[in-house]
Amino acid sequence: MLRAFFIFLSKADWAQRIITNWKFAWRMASRFIAGETQEDALDVVRQLNQQGILATLDHLGENTEDQKAAEQFTNDVLSVLAAIHTAGLKSNVSIKLSQLGLVLDPEMAYANLTRILDRARQYQNFIRVDMEDSTLTEITLELVSRAKAAGYDNVGTVIQSYLYRSEDDIRQLAQKGIKVRLVKGAYKEPSSVAYPKKADVDAAFDRLTKLLLSKEAEIGFYGGSGDGLFPPLAAVASHDVKRIRFAREMLKQLDLPEKSVEFQFLYGIRRDLQQELNRLGYPVRVYVPYGTHWYPYYMRRLAERPSNVWFFISNFFQK
Ligand SMILES: Cc1cc2nc3c(=O)[nH]c(=O)nc-3n(C[C@H](O)[C@H](O)[C@H](O)COP(=O)(O)OP(=O)(O)OC[C@H]3O[C@@H](n4cnc5c(N)ncnc54)[C@H](O)[C@@H]3O)c2cc1C
After folding, report:
1. Is the CB–ligand 1 distance for residue 238 below 6 Å?
2. Cα of 311 to ligand 1 centre, how many Å?
3. HEC string of 78-141?
4. Per the structure, how many domains does the chain have?
5. Residue 301 domain-assigned?
6. How far is residue 88 from each of residues 83, 140, 153, 230, 241, measured CA to CA in Å?
């Protein structure tokens, strides 16, 4: 109920106008967001790298409304790729195709994506295409597969365990050698396409982890590039200790080394667990969002955890 309400708010322009005008809202959101500028984000990546943790940078924004804005976003990604390279940081970049104009014109989004992939290739870096709501799943997978078929080996994507279709999608992506980040899924979806119950989403997450890691075992250990930029075939992105425990157990059963999976976390969540896994020798990558378009991202983080909402509300009243 609360989850649905905050996901609804994440898309409501009127709520965005009100909430982003509260100074305290940014203070609360900044627990999950590195800062408003590229420099803020690079500082956070530097600190993570110093602890042995890798990063993926996300310049916040979604559903770009015109061609100019899509081009601007593309240029911002090119700029952050150059900055990562110059600073010698261990970070790749995550993008959303709707930032590149997907909803306006898929061909425009594809052209922007290949500009980004070309630049990333120049720096031997990797681009992860985030997954958005289910109206964009098919076209996102289509464009990522098209880029891979065109010779871009530096592109990967995300699969959500709440969608019924995900097992087929993982099989197809693994066959094409496309790297997958597995997540539970952050959007409000109808029961015609996604499991409504959390227990089913969790069970599917474990099944898909097993499938992904088995694919990795089939091709013979397939780790990341070792310089922190390219991930292995499988990334398990969850803060849920049971899901992480299951993935570690599967690695043992399949006799795969620690390096064959990357554990990924969102910035600001379960830092203790990030450090523990890092100490145990697993690659850990933190998703670092930055920029001024933080509102929908922050609302989705509130939706995931009622205690974040109470924290938000109690701070509001203390003000
Ligand atoms: C690196 C990364 C990239 C992602 N990319 C995408 C994407 O491209 N598309 C997409 O749909 N989703 C994406 N997600 C979000 C994902 O789908 C989930 O919504 C999110 O990770 C919460 O689910 P969970 O697996 O952590 O499990 P949950 O069962 O939601 O949470 C497990 C535990 O984690 C902690 N936790 C989880 N969320 C929060 C929070 N917001 N605040 C504080 N504690 C929390 C709590 O301790 C909670 O009990 C991504 C997540 C990660 C980690």
Report:
1. yes
2. 18
3. HHHHHHHHHHCCCEEEEECHHHHCCCCCHHHHHHHHHHHHHHHHHCCCCEEECCCCHHHHHHHH
4. 1
5. no
6. 8, 30, 21, 14, 32
pLDDT at 312: 66
Total-model pTM: 0.93
Please indicate whether residue 240, judged by its CB atom, sits closer than 6 Å to ligand 1: yes
- Residues in the chain, pLDDT under 50: 319
Q: For the domain that residue 99 is a member of, what is the CATH number?
A: 3.20.20.220
Structure confidence at residue 318 (pLDDT):
55
pLDDT at 306: 65
Residue nearest to atom 36 of ligand 1 (CA): 239
For residue 176, being part of any structural domain is answered with: yes
The whole-angstrom separation of Cα 24 and Cα 144 is 38
pLDDT of residue 315: 59
Inside any domain, residue 43: no
Within-domain flag for 91: yes
Q: Which atom of ligand 1 is nearest to the CA of 264?
A: 1
CA of 237 to the centre of ligand 1 (A): 7
13-50 pLDDT, tens digit each: 887 877 777 777 787 888 899 999 999 999 999 999 99
What is the whole-number distance in angstroms between the Cα of residue 184 and the centre of ligand 1? 7
Range of the domain at 174: 63-271
What's the confidence (pLDDT) of residue 7? 77
